[in-house]
Design a protein that fits this description.
alpha/beta; Rossmann fold; 2 domains; 9 strands
Length: 254
């Protein structure tokens, strides 16, 4: 068992962290994802952009093992997150726009509760994040502002140093200071340590600020997937590329 663990941890860095092949998902008569294929390489920040209802959250739910592929395959670290959720999810940190935290818990209680599930939890790093995010350990989660809740959710998603951080519209409705915390130093630090960030957003400016690679999704199809510098060279800006390949401008109002 130890050998298997070491082999997994020492997999070549060229192996994709996320490997999606011909993924299809319907909800009734609606085709949410239509034969989507995408590989996310290890390290760096991968932005997933599209309008509301384009399929971004459905895509992420398959990565997290919350939905089973109707056809095609989903692999995270080479694992099927539905068949082997413990092995896959123990290596993923996740923060969503809803960020539903138990309101009766304090920040300190949330940290201690989450710590019990992750052997790799780093107490010193958790405390560093708590201070960085100016979170009162005694504050009840139900009394926190939306920005403070986002910080608390990000803290517990990061404190066990996951190899993959998945953010689903994490900054929607948040003020610029919180966006800077989420999409600035923290994300850059994760990527610089050789770990991987996948985040979805409808805010093209923040994607362009931090992403290394961008995938555009429209009506369950991938319209374009390329390194950001290649997109800029060919289109001038991410917004111009989005209009060219998706056929519309995004409404970036929160």
């Amino acid at each position: 068992m130890q050998n298997t663990y070491m082999q997994r941890r020492m997999a070549p860095v060229s192996d994709p962290v996320i490997d999606i092949s011909e993924l299809t998902r319907r909800f009734g008569a609606t085709m949410a994802l239509d034969s989507v294929s995408l590989a996310v390489t290890r390290g760096g920040v991968h932005g997933l952009v599209g309008a509301n209802g384009a399929g971004k959250t459905t895509f992420i739910k398959h990565i997290l093992g919350l939905l089973r592929a109707e056809s095609g395959s989903v692999r995270v670290f080479g694992l099927d997150p539905v068949a082997d959720p413990v092995s896959a999810l123990s290596r993923i940190g996740y923060l969503s726009e809803e960020n539903d935290l138990p309101g009766w818990m304090s920040v300190d209680q949330l940290m201690r509760y989450t710590r019990a599930f992750y052997p790799a939890w780093d107490d010193a790093y958790a405390e560093e994040l708590r201070q960085k995010f100016t979170l009162d350990p005694a504050a009840k989660l139900g009394k926190l502002s939306k920005g403070q809740k986002a910080r608390a959710g990000l803290l517990v998603a990061l404190a066990y140093r996951p190899e993959l951080l998945v953010l689903d519209e994490p900054s929607s409705g948040l003020d610029p200071i919180v966006r800077r915390d989420i999409l600035g130093a923290v994300m850059r630090t994760i990527a610089d340590e050789g770990r991987t960030v996948l985040f979805s957003s409808h805010l093209l400016d923040e994607v362009e600020e931090v992403a290394d690679h961008v995938t555009m999704i429209r009506d369950g199809h991938i319209a374009l997937s390329a390194p950001l510098d290649v997109i800029r060279e060919s289109h001038g800006s991410l917004e111009e590329a989005f209009i060219a390949h998706v056929g519309e401008a995004l409404d970036e109002a929160d």
